[in-house]
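Subject: design request, 131 residues
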């Protein structure tokens, strides 16, 4: 019997080494820092609304962090929220940027969305895997 596409995808995801997830997470965290501290006049990819940029970035970091550090979700989420606060502090020292604590709220919402998407994905994978 030929395996379904889901079985093949699930095996591929499980086979992806933890170091690849961790490298992806680290690259994403670094990219977010660079984008957050670049001068405003430099064109960068964005969604068109600052708060949705934060939601997207922190959702992706939460998803990657869950995969990179399984079983440490609370630590990853707390660390990423502190990282968001650090970015705001650093932006307050950047000439063309300014700190906005509403951004930290958007970061927290993004983390919650990323965490929820990860939980949903996990639950769907379990449902598909059960007979």
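Subject: RE: design request

Done. Sequence follows.
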């Amino acid at each position: 019997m030929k395996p379904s596409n889901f079985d093949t995808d699930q095996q591929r995801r499980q086979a992806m080494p933890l170091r690849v997830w961790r490298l992806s997470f680290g690259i994403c965290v670094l990219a977010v820092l660079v984008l957050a501290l670049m001068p405003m006049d430099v064109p960068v990819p964005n969604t068109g609304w600052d708060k949705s940029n934060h939601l997207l970035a922190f959702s992706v970091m939460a998803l990657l962090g869950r995969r990179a550090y399984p079983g440490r979700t609370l630590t990853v989420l707390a660390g990423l929220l502190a990282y968001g606060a650090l970015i705001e502090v650093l932006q307050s020292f950047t000439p063309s940027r300014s700190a906005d604590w509403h951004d930290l709220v958007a970061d927290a919402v993004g983390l919650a969305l990323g965490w929820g998407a990860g939980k949903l994905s996990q639950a769907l994978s379990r449902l598909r895997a059960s007979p």
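The longest helix spans residues 101-129.
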